[in-house]
Amino acid sequence: MADILSQLDALDGQIGNLETTIGSAQTVSAAFQGELKSMETTMSAANRQVSGLTRSVGWGLRRAFDGLVFDGAQLSDVLKSLGRSMVSSVFSSAFKPVQNTLAQALTGGVQSLIGGLLPFQNGAAFSSGKVTPFARGGVISSATPFQMQGGLGVMGEAGPEAIMPLTRGADGKLGVKSAQGGRAVTVTMNISTPDLAGFHRSRSQIASQMSRAIARASRNN
Question: What's this model's pTM, rounded to 2 decimal places?
Answer without folding.
Answer: 0.24
